[in-house]
Amino acid sequence: MRIDLAQPDRSWRDMHRLYLSFVQPRPIAWASTVSAAGALNLAPFSFYNMVSANPPVVLFSPALNRDGGPKDTLANIRETGEFVIATVTELNAEAMNLTSTEFPHGVSEFDRAGLTPVPAYRVRPALVKESPVNIECRLRQIVELGRDSGAGNVVFGDVLVVHVDDAVLDSDGLCDPDKLLAVGRMGGHLYTRTRDRFELVSIRDPARLPR
């Protein structure tokens, strides 16, 4: 199969489904935001990752809604310049799914999904108590990729504070995957666990490569 996007024979929605079917697994995180008026919002994203360690920067990409306007997450970040990223795991995946519902403006996904907002240390948006990892962020930049329905807006955030539950740490102070139980997004309605793993040791010195 070859699809030339200069001569597309599929809608952007059909192409979106195709992209999701091969860009996988994708890590999932909540973005916790708050409006200027103080209304909490929580939404999950799988277009998300850590993109720099020095300086520490995360990104995620909320799409425009069906009318081409910003959803609450993007609107709130534009208003306040702050957000919290929270890791989604097997233990809170059902709640994550509930927060993907398109509730009316002003409805708190925390309340509807039975999640607990916790005051953050340096930003106004709330931490998610049920998540083992919460990252407080200040907006660095928003890159608008389009103005039509479905267009992404890449949100870059500078990491200010990282909260990690001691219960998911190993003896080296790193997250133990057997305790973290992170999940990934696949295509369609499919998700994946992170229990089936294998190890590959990087060979940085070319002289050590097998002959």
Summarize the structure.
The protein is an alpha+beta fold and 211 residues long. The protein has one domain (12-208): Electron Transport, Fmn-binding Protein, Chain A (Pnp Oxidase, Chain A).
Can you describe what's shown?
The protein has 211 residues and is of the alpha+beta class. It has one domain: Electron Transport, Fmn-binding Protein, Chain A (Pnp Oxidase, Chain A). The chain has 5 helices and 12 strands. The protein has helices at 12-22, 72-80, 93-99, 109-113, 177-180; strands at 26-27, 29-34, 40-45, 48-53, 56-60, 82-87, 117-118, 127-128, 133-144, 153-164, 183-185, 191-193. A 7-stranded antiparallel sheet has the order 3-2-6-9-10-5-4. It has a 3-stranded antiparallel sheet with strand order 1-11-12, with no helix packed on it. A hairpin with an 8-residue loop joins β9 and β10 (153-164). The longest helix is centred in the N-terminal third of the chain and has 11 residues, at 12-22. It is globular and about 60 Å long.
